[in-house]
Amino acid sequence: MKKILILLILVLFSISGCGSSTKDAAIEASNQSGAPAAWDSNAKNEAEMGLDGDYASAARPEDRKIIQNAEVRIRVEDIEGVCEQIKDKTLELKGYLNDYSVRTNENNAHADISLKVPSACYQEMLEFIVKLGKPDYKREYTNDVTNQYIDLDARIKVLRAEEESLLNLLNKAETVEDVLKIKAQITTTRQERESLEGQFKVLSNSVEYATINVSLYKPRNSDVNVNVENLNVISRSWSGFIYGINFLTAKVGNIIVLFFTALPTLILIALIIIAFIYVRRIRKGKNNNDV
User: Fold this and answer.
1) pLDDT at 246
2) Do 210 and 69 contact (CB within 8 A), yes or no?
3) Which domain range does residue 166 map to?
């Protein structure tokens, strides 16, 4: 009986040991199979966080690429003096003139200035210009080129890496045919890269420097004289007399110009009428003779 009890106890211990080892093996296998999955998940999350972080960084207001522009039309009394002030202020702010033209005649003067200043000085320059005269038109607008900026930068980096790889292949090329093919690919890649770099440079300059287009004008002398409210009766009468003469001269001049413009047509019509009358008289004379 004791032997049977001892045998049963040994069998139970044996079963218990097998179950424990099986459980441990299962746990170990589970850990081994689960570890890569957990790593892959973490790696994926880190990659996604890094990618989202890049886009979030580019989307932050301080990281966005904004082109600033303004258009201003100002009435001034001294065209040349105001132009000089604008040029001096532009140079003071480390900017430059992009275009400049002045047109003057007896009655009026007009100037167009296109200038660029660092984006950080944009508002300062615009406020300075507006105070130089009486503005009657002002427009400010921006252009967000963040996506275009990021896209160009990424494409340039890819082309540089591709060009470097092609140069490495060129060093390892063994046949003339391979050398020619690789050189052709290098030329194409380099041309595309240089073209994109040119676009990127222009875009970067537009972001770094704001553009302000200024139109200056001086009112006509006739407008200034007529619009003065405090003129005495004699001066106002004289201005009205001069205005009447100018009006009459302009109208008479227009009539004279119109007459000479229509003169060839009038001559042709007159010749046709004369010819018609002449032919009619000849026919009438023949009819009288026949009678």
Assistant:
1) 80
2) yes
3) 147-208
